[in-house]
Amino acid sequence: MLQATAYSVLDLAHAKVDASYADAYARVVEAAQAAEDLGYRRFWLAEHHSMDGIGSSATSVLIGHIAGATQTLRVGAGGIMLPNHAPMVVAEHFGTLEALYPGRIDLGVGRAPGSDGATMRALRRELHSGVDDFPEQLAELQYFLGEQQPGQKVFAVPGMSSQVPIWLLGSSLYSAQLAARRGLPFAFASHFAPRLMLEALHLYRTGFEPSAVLDAPYAAIGVPVCAAPSDEQARYLHTTAQQSVLALLRGEHLRLRPPVESMESLWTPQEAAHISDFHGIAVVGGPETVRQKLQELKTLTGADEFIFASNFFDQRDRLRSLELVALAMNGI
Fold first, then answer.
1. In 87-110, which positions are buried (b, 16+ CB within 10 angstroms) versus exposed (e)?
2. What is the pLDDT of residue 124?
3. Which of 39, 61, 185, 316 would you call most buried, defined as having the most Cβ atoms within 10 angstroms of its Cβ?
4. Quick one: pLDDT at residue 1?
5. Given this model, what pLDDT does residue 127 score?
6. What pLDDT score was predicted for residue 113?
7. Contact 73/36 with Cβ under 8 angstroms?
8. What's the distance, CA 223 to chain centroid?
9. What phi and psi, each to the nearest 5 degrees, are found at residue 285?
10. Is 11 left (phi over 0), alpha (psi -120 to 50) or beta?
């Protein structure tokens, strides 16, 4: 039953072509408050850098802002790109957030840089540190968020003993296997890389080893969603998301563009095929279509949680989509 599946939101604080980042942040707050009222479990912000239109680069700052504007909603990172940061600094940031908003902070981490090589260098991480030593970085992060150890001389303050929940995020089989070995909750990035979703979920569940934080596997999947009063209107509104992926492919700005009646004159057949693959499990439609597609996705994946990602140019359309998806997730 869909009622047994938690539902959450992933946000990138997208700026519109005709508006500021301040406007983007105001819209994120409004969406988070609506999500809280509608029963969404958590609201995640994702780290990206050097991308015009994506306002979530200072992820921990924005998490604090959203947590301060809500009451019960869990707020966190989906995720922090660990190769960009010293694990101790991440532990300090999220230890501070946990102290400010007890029991409401989640820390999802990934091993991709979320940027290109030049941006990585600008972030001032040592060049020899990267995805290859991600397991060591993850262990270091767990160390700084865990209980004090005998002889420990360096502490994350705050952070130590906070036990902020750590999730492992990924779009590869590697991440699924590492999450299983560490006994961590796992979120698969099927909202942009759906091809390996089922294999990754299988590897995670079959290889899962219980840990101090989790007795059984807990898997979430990213789901692109665009719900509207009718299928036709949803397809129209979804062209904003399609234009965003097209801009990403072409290396253009990622500011939200208004929807269009047709994408045919905007993309090549090759680009259309790529975007179709990118949005391979997208749920786009009116209320009944959305309910049916989500039920099918639940049956197919057995996911414990859906994390919904969406791009809407008009905030009213986004808030309506949040409501329609919540109604579908509650079986109405």
1. bbebbbbbbbbbeebeebbbbbbb
2. 59
3. 185
4. 43
5. 52
6. 65
7. yes
8. 10
9. 165, -175
10. beta
Q: Is the dihedral of CA 213, 218, 224, 226 positive or negative?
A: negative
Give the per-residue pLDDT at 331: 79
CA dihedral 138, 99, 187, 2 (to 10 degrees): 160
What are the tokens at 135? 């397991």
Name 218's bridge partners.
Answer: none
Smallest Cα–Cα separation from 106: which of 59, 51, 174, 52?
A: 59
State the Cα–Cα distance between residues 318 and 270, nearest whole angstrom: 29
Cα separation, 54 vs 56, in Å, equals 6
What is the number of alpha carbons within 13 Å of residue 120 lying toward its C-beta? 17
- Beta bridge partners, 308, equal 9, 223
Residue located via tokens 């500011």: 255
The pLDDT of residue 79 is 86
Please give the pLDDT value at position 147: 87
Q: Do residues 105 and 98 touch, judged by C-beta distance below 8 A?
A: yes
Contact 190, 286 (CB under 8 A): no
- Give every residue of the chain whose pLDDT is below 50, as ranges: 1, 3
Evaluate whether 52 touches 253 at the Cβ level (below 8 Å): yes
Query: 2-329: which CATH topology?
Result: TIM Barrel (3.20.20)
Residue 157 CB coordination number (10 Å): 12
Instruction: List pLDDT tens digits, range 116-162.
Output: 667 667 775 555 555 568 999 999 999 999 888 888 888 888 988 88
Query: Which residues contact residue 240 at a Cβ distance below 8 angstroms, ignoring those fewer than 6 apart?
Result: 256, 257, 258, 259, 311, 312, 313
Residue at token pair 């790529």: 274
Beta partners for 305? 6, 220
How far apart CA 88 and CA 17 sit, in angstroms, is 37
